[in-house]
C-alpha cells in the first residue's frame, strides 16, 4: 500500500463559517486504492472535510488536490468523485435499475449499453436480477447497495461515503462492513469513509485520520491507532482504555522509567512514550484485553498485582471485570473470554491480575 501514488492531498486546508474555524490547517494524503476513514465525534469537521473533496464545500485557504490536480476551480459535477449519502437518496417512484442508471441519463452510450452497465453494477453489489423491483420495496441493506451501485456505475476515481451504514441495525451494519471491504478490493478505487463509529473504522480501514475540533490528532493504520495512540484523547476515543496515574522517574533514548500506581516501577520502550504532551498529569494506559485474571492453580510469566473484583459484566462470549488493583483506589477494566471450564467470578473475589509492561503507553 505504501508504494501506491497519492490520490487526494490536503495542503494546509482551512475552512471558516463566519468566525467559526471548522478546519484548522489540515495537511494529509490519501493513497490510490486505499480504504481511508475520517473518524471523530460530531462536529469535529470530518464531514466538512469530505465535502471539500466532493466540491460541495469551498475552502477558505489551502488546497485540495485529486490525482495531482488542484480542485480550486473544478465544480462538484466535474470532479472524479461520487458520494453515497447517509440517507441513500433513493428515488422511491423509480425501479432499482432506473435508480442505478440515473447518472447515465446524459451518457452518449446506446440504451442497450446503458442497460448492460446497470446490470454489471447491480451484480457488483450483489443485486443481480433486482433491476425491475420497486425501490420502495427494498430493505435498508438493499437500498444501501443500490446507492453504491448508482455511485460506482460512473466509475469515479474516488468514492465518498458519508456514514452510509448508520441507518442499519447492528447485524446488517456488520454484514455490510464486510461487503464494503470486499467491494472496495474488487473495484480497486479509493474509498473515503466518514464515521463516528470507532469499531467500524478499525474494521474497514487501511488508514484512519482521527479528528477533533477541526484538526487531525493522529493518522495511522488501525493497529497503530489502537495499540500506540499518540495522545490520551485519541486513546480515550478509540475503544476502551484504562488510565493509571504514574510518575515519570527518568527519560532517555532507550525509553522511560515510570512508577505506576498499583503496578509499581516499569520500564517503557521509546515507542511506548509518545512525544506529544497535553499539559496533563502523566498516566499510563492499557487495554482491557491486555490484563488477565490468574485463576487458582495457574502460573504466568507476566507481572502480577493483587486485586478485588468490584463489578462483573457478562456479555456471552466475554466477561468484563472492574477490579481495584494493588490495594489502591485505582480501578481497571479487564476482559476474559468465556471458554469451557472457566468460571465467572463474583463481586468481592480476591484475584491476581497479570499484565505485561509492553502493553503500557505513557500519556502526559
Major beta-sheet overview? 6 strands, mixed
At the fold tier of CATH, the topology name of the largest domain is Rossmann fold
CATH architectural type of the largest domain: 3-Layer(aba) Sandwich
The low-confidence parts are none
Shape: globular
Tally of DSSP β-strands: 20
What value does the Rg take, in angstroms? 25 Å
Oligomer: single chain
Overall tally of structural domains = 2
Describe this structure in words.
The protein is α+β, with helices and mostly antiparallel strands and 364 residues long. It has two domains: 6-227, 3-Layer(aba) Sandwich (Rossmann fold); 240-364, Nucleic acid-binding proteins (OB fold (Dihydrolipoamide Acetyltransferase, E2P), Beta Barrel). 21% of the residues lie in helices and 35% in strands. It is built from eight helices and 20 strands. The chain has helices at residues 46-54, 96-100, 111-124, 140-152, 170-187, 198-204, 222-227, 232-237; strands at residues 6-17, 20-31, 35-39, 61-66, 69-70, 81-84, 158-162, 190-195, 207-212, 215-220, 242-252, 255-260, 264-268, 283-286, 292-294, 303-314, 318-325, 331-337, 350-355, 361-363. The strands form four sheets. A six-stranded mixed β-sheet has the order 6-7-8-3-9-10, sandwiched between helices. Strands 13-12-11-14-20 form a five-stranded antiparallel β-sheet, with no helix packed on it. It has a five-stranded antiparallel β-sheet with strand order 15-19-16-17-18, with no helix packed on it. A hairpin with a 2-residue loop joins strand 1 and strand 2. The protein is globular. It starts with 5 loop residues before the first strand and ends with a strand. The model has no long low-confidence stretch (mean pLDDT 92).
